[in-house]
Structures are given as C-alpha cells and as structure tokens.
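hiii, so i know i said id send this last week but things got crazy w the move. better late than never?? heres the sequnce for the chain we talked about at the cafe, plus the structure i predicted for it. fair warning i was half asleep when i ran it
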Amino acid sequence: MSIAAEKGAGHAEGGSRRLILDHAARLLRSGGYHQTTLREIAEAVGIRKASLYYHFASKEEIVEAVVNDGVRFVHEGVVAALATTEAAPPRERLEAAIRGHLSALHGHGDYTSASIKVFNFGSVPALESVRAVRRAYEDVWRGLIAELQQAGALPTERSPDVLRLFLLGALNGSTDWYRPERFEIDALARELAALLSPAS
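okay and structure toks below
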C-alpha cells in the first residue's frame, strides 16, 4: 500500500488525532510511558505505525498531548464550576471547585490518570507546554485560595502554596481509591471542603 493510500485508509478506519489520543491515554494509564509503544498505539487504533506520523511527529508528542489534555479537562471543569458560583459564599465555591476537579478527574479517567502517572514518575522531561498548562490550572487555585483566605474561609496563617499542593495532591490521589459504587462525588466534595474549611 502506498503512503497516500495508507493515509486515506487510516482516516477511513477512524485514525483521527482524537482516536489516537484516546487509545494512547488508555495504554499510558495502564502501562505507563516506558511500557507503551507506538506500535501498541497504532494496533489499538487499527492503523499502521507509520500512519501515526501524519498526526504526531513522535511518541513524545503523543504523550505531551495526552498529559496536557488531562490537565485541561480538569481545568475546564473547575473553571465552569466556579463560574456558576460567583456570588456564592466562599465555602460553597471551594466545594464547587473540588467537585469540578473530581468530576473531570474521574469523568476523563484515561487522560487524567495517564497525565498524573506520566508526570509524577518523571517519565518524560517537563516540556514547556506541559509546565505552562499546569501553571495555568494551578493559577486558578492560587486565586481561589487567596479569595478564601481573604474571606476567612481558610486560615490566613497557612501557606497558600502548601494548601494548594496539599489539596491538589489529595484530589489527584483519589485515582487510587475512588470507586463510583463506594462514593458519590457531590458528597465527597462536601466532606473534603469541610475538612479544609470547617463550618463556623
């Protein structure tokens, strides 16, 4: 088969960029960076390995896209949750942000779990795009924590950076123990918000 013909066949078989990323995220979630190969990804999509290069220049580029999408899905979920609670009391906004994070984290499990797994284990160098996407999301929490401390919903004597790292670490750690049959996300968000900001 010629390269041009294979490219057409790949698209006919659904070898789209998003489909490639969907399968890559699933494989990275289960096998990690080093165990996941381009050949595995191509076979999962149903195209030849060479066809991947019509969408991505390398395995690293695929992993970068999966990692960034994992963070973006959560970022968008939290921003949307906060947008609906602009006039709400501070404690409710904290709960909404936690709920938005958890809902996106577990609603896009392959991407978010792969993103956490690959990044936490230092499987690939922290590319500038990865750092930028993570910073943008962390800035949402920096702003929210500052708002909550100013409103007295979080203790002002606590380091905002430590609070942010503690909270995001706890939320992301739920990928190890959260099961939908055991926990309901709304109730879990209320519990976690209460741990950080007890009702006065």
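btw The chain has two domains: 1-56, 60-196. thought thatd interest u
miss u guys!!
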